[in-house]
Amino acid sequence: xxxxxxxxxxxxxxxxxxxxxxxxxxxxxxxxxxxxxxxxxxxxxxxxxxxxxxxxxxxxxxxxxxxxxxxxx
Length: 73
What we know:
The chain has one helix at 55-71; strands at residues 14-19, 22-31, 39-48. By secondary structure, the chain is of the alpha+beta class. The longest helix is centred in the C-terminal third of the chain and has 17 residues, at 55-71.
């Protein structure tokens, strides 16, 4: 496994979609621990109702990411 801090869930790691006037967001992070492949893991999705991604959604994604990397040790 690669050493160093796992990727942080940030604004760039979200997938966006707009359907019937609703903005959908899917938060994700990258697992680059394999030298040959990168695994993209979607943590969860939600309908965005404000201009910013709610902090609780980011915290939820960060918690899932932390649990994922802790389980790989």
